[in-house]
Give the backbone structure.
Amino acid sequence: MRVFKMEKGNLVPFLRSLEEFGEVWGPVKKGNSFVYAHEDPEKFDLSAIRTLIPAKKFFLPKVATILKFKNGAWTDNRECKKRVIFGLHPCDLHALNIYHEFYTRIYEDPYYTSNREATLIIGLSCLPDDNCFCNLTDTSTIEEGFDLFFTELDDKFLVWVGSPRGDEVLAKRKDMVEDITQNDIKEYIEWRKKREKMFKVDLSFTGLPEIVSASYDSDIWDKMGAACLSCGTCTMVCPSCTCFDVEDEYDIRNDELNRKRKWYSCFFREYSMVAGGHNFREARAERLRLWYTHKLVGFMSEYGEPACVGCGRCVVSCPVGINVLSVVRALTGEKNDAFWAKTEVKQL
Amino acid sequence: MKERVDILKCEVHEEENPYVPERARIIRKYDLTNDVRFFQVRLCNHEKVMEWTTKYKPGQFMMLSIPNVGEAPFSITSTPTRPGIFEFCIRKVGRLTGKLFELRENDFVWLRGPFGNGFPVEKMRGKDLLFVAGGLGAAPLRSVLLYALDYRERFGKIYYLYGAKNPDEMLFKDEFFGMKERQDFDCYLTVDSDPTGEWPYDIGVVTTLFKYVKDIDVENTVAVVCGPPVMYKFVVQEFMKLGIHEENIYMTLERKMKCGMGKCGQCVVGHKYTCIDGPVFTLWDVKTIRNLI
């Protein structure tokens, strides 16, 4: 992979100059968390670990009108917007690669593809906090799926070129980057060592698919199911969750009908309910088990890697402490201090 | 190096969008039972009629929609060997089907598809076939049954066993009564009970019809079962008694679906999406993938 270096002072002018291709979005602080926003790049917060909502929202918007029905015919309503997204970390990029594989296999989803083609993706290195565990899911570094990737060293960025588009962008901004030296590589290696030592989650993911598979009838699911609120937060914040629902909505003002697709969650009761009211996953425990087995086993069977990228979003978001870490701890028999671990299961 | 003007693309090729449905016309409809109706529909775009109605496989489904009501998957009950139209058997159970029952001949519905894996009709060639249907299960099964009969010479013995609650609940009665007269395959019909007193055939659950199944080559038999979930267990037991291998026992399953293309996720079971990995599964799949039935 081609790699250059950029002085830190050049980052903001560089990002500003990309506005010629499309809106430049990056992470900014909002309340206690970070969100992607279309702001002046000076406001981008390079210390942002994880945004509240992952970058999947650019490729599968929370709500989007996919078709319009007017004068007796359905028409395609693809509304892609040209964007440059800055600040995706290796875990985010791995999740995006899962998205790409998922949304283009067998049937290519045209809405996804249009959004992806209209987006320039610029990654950014990170230093883990207490809830990051991408080292365990083997997603702490990234080789593909970005146009450019910035590694932040003490006084400079290394800029990795990941695509022809990225190459062209840099080619026109040659004065902002320089070739790297042997010393830069040394600094990079030191930085990698420092970063690797910063991961704090002490847990093993070895053999996890088999363990989860074999735990299908475990009472742990009932216990967690009793505490789970079915709120769906984990699925909304999960960067590799792909599910959606489709609904027709009549727009009375414009006298047209919109077929909309919206984020949906397998934690919702209606998710597995068929016509006539039969529900294949009536119990919360069954829905919870579906999510964890799909993430940790199902994706493994289909794509050769689990769908968890270790971003820690479920760890910081679940109101009752059910997350990949606490579930893995429970399934592997480790001591667990999650709220639900103290919950008694009431047989209904 | 000369820079591309549009590094980022925003292009829309409408013809490539598999979410856009095709308009179709209801050309015929009639009631099969008091809550199941038969619909024959034909695409309005005549150029697409033959392409669409010859390329699907028995066991596949279409996404059928009514604007402002919704879209749902329905098994195709017709066979690609009789092209030109699509046929569906639809039970009135919800909002969309309720609206469908209000439609008349010449009204429009919208179709996308076909989706799903369908029955392995190529693998079935040269084999004996044992079809078992219960209730509304006759809808998807009729497609593969008619297909097998239209290519009769490709298959060995064919048995069709169909059970319904009572004579009024049996689908395609005239058609199946006619089949009983055919000499080239065996059709057996039964009802759980007969309040009319006029039922001419067997009475009892569908598994009682297995007594008629004789001289099949179990090593070379493909069995197919379609019906309400409670029926599967008992029919599968009969298949096992006959000695049919679990990888040769097929069933078609029902799930909620919103896309048909393995994206929306609502039909997920284990790591399989019913819409692309199914709806036809083998008994082996059912045993391996928990929660399938």
